[in-house]
Amino acid sequence: MSHVLDDLVDLLSLESIEENLFRGRSQDLGFRQLYGGQVLGQSLSAASQTVEDARHVHSLHGYFLRPGDASLPVVYSVDRVRDGGSFSTRRVTAIQKGKTIFTCSASFQYDEEGFEHQAQMPDVVGPENLPTEVELARAMADNLPERIRDKVLCAKPIEIRPVTERDPFNPKPNDPVKYAWFRADGNLPDVPALHKYLLAYASDFGLLTTSLLPHGKSVWQRDMQIASLDHSLWFHGNLRADDWLLYATDSPWAGNARGFCRGSIYNRAGQLVASSTQEGLIRHRKDWA
């Protein structure tokens, strides 16, 4: 693994400080607040460590309640709500400075035979010859705010290659649909739960901004206030986070200063391995311009 991926795996591993109580350090990605994907991945890690290995997470539903502080660790309290014959349910509370910043419920299930069908994978170009997000950002480095330039341009543990490429500093109205390939930048051990933590971490990248596309707005514009409000994730089976995954996102609705987005995640074989939804704040702050 690269050192940045090794650091991310360590970030998601958590420290057990008491039964059902865990602590995770934080990373500063240059945003105004703690990156939501970190809290998603660490919450799933905390919940998974209280469930037997034979039960695999199949869904997570969470709410972002307060902005997190990237300079402080996060404490995760896990409530073992139920262990039934087939399913286990966990409730996780993420805490900083004595206050809840995020809460979620996660459900786990034994593998079981059943009916199967899935939506077809979109027909898009493969990742091999596409530039990475970091390469695209370096070509526009002069437009990046100086305070976060180094964080945007540094090596990343998750390699993202946009299929749908647009200029975030001069956005034009477009259909609310995006495609991007992503993978962990290095080989990971064969631990299925770890690959799901990493998917949860990566699932927050670029999802909410899909709702800005019809309006010709970008997260990089100073007059936009953007924050995740809730996030749901369904795992349809095991996956490899260190092999290419296609994130197909769309936004069917926006209104009342909120945007609603959906995501479908496919592996290279065309299997739908996960689905996501998110609603977030997309407030146009003319007083910030």
Per DSSP, what share of the residues sits in E-state strands of 2 or more residues?
35-45%
CATH class: Mainly Beta
Overall structural domain count: 1
| Major β-sheet strand ordering | 1-2-4-5-6-3-9-12-11-10-8-7
Count of helical segments?
5
CATH architecture annotation = Beta Barrel
**Structure summary, number of beta strands:** 12
CATH superfamily membership: Acyl-CoA thioesterase, double hotdog domain
Summarize the structure.
With 289 residues, this protein is α+β, with helices and mostly antiparallel strands.
Plain-language structure description:
It is a single chain. This protein has 289 residues and is an alpha+beta fold. It has one domain: Beta Barrel (Porin), CATH 2.40.160. It has helices spanning 3-13, 36-48, 133-139, 146-153, 192-202; strands at residues 15-18, 21-24, 55-64, 74-83, 87-96, 99-110, 158-162, 177-184, 224-235, 245-255, 258-267, 272-284. A twelve-stranded antiparallel β-sheet has the order 1-2-4-5-6-3-9-12-11-10-8-7, covered by helices on one side. The longest helix is centred in the N-terminal third of the chain and has 13 residues, at 36-48. The chain is globular, with a radius of gyration of 18 Å. It is an enzyme of class 3 (hydrolase). Residues 153-281 form the Acyl-CoA thioesterase 2 C-terminal domain.
